[in-house]
From TrEMBL:
The protein's name in its UniProt record: Helix-turn-helix domain-containing protein
Keywords assigned: Transcription, Transcription regulation
Keyword match Transcription regulation: yes
Domain HTH araC/xylS-type: 225-323
Organism, scientific name: Flavivirga rizhaonensis
GO terms, molecular function: DNA-binding transcription factor activity; sequence-specific DNA binding
InterPro entries referenced in this protein's UniProt entry, alphabetically: Class_I_gatase-like, DJ-1/PfpI, Homeodomain-like_sf, HTH_AraC, INH-QAR
Amino acid sequence: MKHVSILVPKSNTILSSVVGPYKIFKSVNDFILQTGKSQQPFFDINLVGIDKDTVLYDGAFSVHCDATIYDISKTDLIIISAVRPEWITDGIKTNYEFIPWIKKQRTQHNAEVASLCLGAFLLAETGLLDNKQCTTHWAGIDLFRQMYPKIDVLPEKIVTDQEGIYSSGGAYSFLNLIIHLVYKYCGQEAAVYVSKLFEIDISRDNQNQFAIFRGQKDHTDTLIQKAQLFIEDHVTEKISVEQLSDMLAVSQRNFIRRFKKATANTPLEYIQRVKVEAAKNTLESTQNTINEVMFSVGYSDTKAFRSLFKRFTGLTPIAYKNKYNRELVSF
């Protein structure tokens, strides 16, 4: 039997990321018992908090935990539930008592640890992710990189698995991580069963198609903000780094350094991401051909545009249009 501790951080936990893993692990137990594969359930599951009761969504819901971290001396698997974005700045302090407990379980009892969505921020605070791979919600990638430069962030990944440390991408992609853990612990038959029961697409391995690029403007470098606005206002044109640095009267080397520091992107990457985001919006909302869309964002080489689009979205332009165009998609 494997003991699972599903952590319930104070205040801003995403309720579905507590209920989802709980229900899936419970269903695996039912499957194992019903099929006669074992006489006892595989997972012993506890909801674990700093306090027994946690109020969520401004009082709309509450979670009653089976135990607190002070009751659990040893566990095999820790699930760090997803949290709301506004949790990140103040929530780490509010839930800091989890951190030494997680570290102790990992270092003294070799517990495995999995973070769901933005729960990766709490896992990163333990230092257990240093020099390891991790993913999180695409909306938190830039902040995560700024706060934890020692971690190898893989923004496109749905699931990462390295030396007993796991993470999932954004929102409901945590379901794919839970299925991954079921497969690892209980085998393919159990994983396929619960994926069918909960209708989870187990083939998903890339979250880039869901990402929305808004540009990183929460910095104080006004010169770089001018460059960003120029790029976004001239999406139909071909823009070079040389053109931008000349326009702003700074050397290319200094411009590139400042741009990367402010936005976490090189100027070229930023230009490309803005153009791809504009192309995505056009593919979603119009019946323009791929070539028309390509020309509208300043590209003329079909092969280069296709390659760039797929690098940032994980899909070809035509596949993206077929999947997300408002007139083609049936709801």
